[in-house]
Amino acid sequence: MSHPLKVGIGSEAFYPTVDGVCTVTKYYADIINRELGEAVIITPENPNKRDYLFPYEIYRYQSLFTFGEGYAVGWPFKRQFAEDVIRMNCDILHSHCPIATSYFFRRINRIKRIPTVLTYHTKYEYDIDARVHSLAVRQKAYTMIGKDIKCADEVWVTSKGTAESLKIMGYEGDYIVMPNGCDLPKYRADEEKKAIIRRKHGIPAGVPLLIFVGRMMWYKNTKLIFDALRQLKGQGRDFRLLMLGIGPEEKAMKKYCQKTGIADKVIFTEMIDNRRELQLYYAASDLLVFPSRFDTNGLVVREAAASATASLLVEGTCAAEGILDGETGFLCDENAESLAVKIDKIIDNRDLLERVGIQAQNDIYISWEESVHNAFERYQIVIDNFNSKPKEPYQW
Q1: Which H helix or E strand runs over 139?
Q2: Which of 101, 160, 227, 338 matches a 20 to 30 Å C-alpha distance to 324?
Q3: What gap in Å lies between CA 374 and CA 355, rounded to an integer?
Q4: pLDDT digits (tens, 9 = 90+) for 58-90
């Protein structure tokens, strides 16, 4: 290919909306435009957009409304939108969501075939099952998502365990594991720096400090953390837990902490937007506690590793893939007792926590530069495979 590769990166939302997928699409666009070729973001209209902050093209198509924390509901049905994207002359389209974005890319491919990749980031069955009580309607939603997945020329996942979610949606084809990266640099904080976070929140020196980072949603298994800490407090253990993030169930979580008698041990900080400050939170903490079964990759595990902080995860989850218990992290069973026992066993062993944190930094950390470079190399393979095969009628 004589010209620089141009990539259309599609997402259901982009900044100022902030979540894991928005972060992924931003770093793909940042690094491709800075180092590798050209990328344009394709995303629904957002009334709060600040696209002038970004030095590359952001194409916004029509949205119907926004909800929650600024999520837009895209309406990609107008033919003009598809023709606008076709005129961009993208060499490949990369969807980061198998709902409106992938449906939009299917409409584009009905007019002009362009090789398309889908990264399946999220276990959508959790959201569907929580909101749709009719089994028939739920199955129809699975089928619709499954059609969007099957229409991609190549499917990527961020962990092997995500393939189970693909099967639920009716997809049993091939896939490529393409892990996400981490934007935080490798960093070791001295005790003076760590003390800043403790002073900020009135945490005495020597008190074990745990941290959870993520959306405040029950499906992140946060109840498991609270129940485990209730057991530890009942045993006379002192500790503090920092809960970093925002979400629709934060208020309910605070009430639960009050109900279980651990509210004096749990500190809700809301979202930490400053990345340097966030890294200091990781570095100041003794252990990231992240028992989520929902997450497909667990970016926060790599973020903690960047600061040489080990993670405690539920064995068998996607977030725990590649983690060796007692070497690059810690594993427990998916119940409060197992979580409490593990914390109690390791939290006073400073040498063990430091050794495992450093090993995590050395072995499981991956930068966004490395991640996106790997993806960019794979784009060319997808394009070559696409061009080498006869074009069959496109699935609609």
Answers
A1: helix 135-150
A2: 227
A3: 29
A4: 999 999 887 776 778 899 999 999 999 999 999
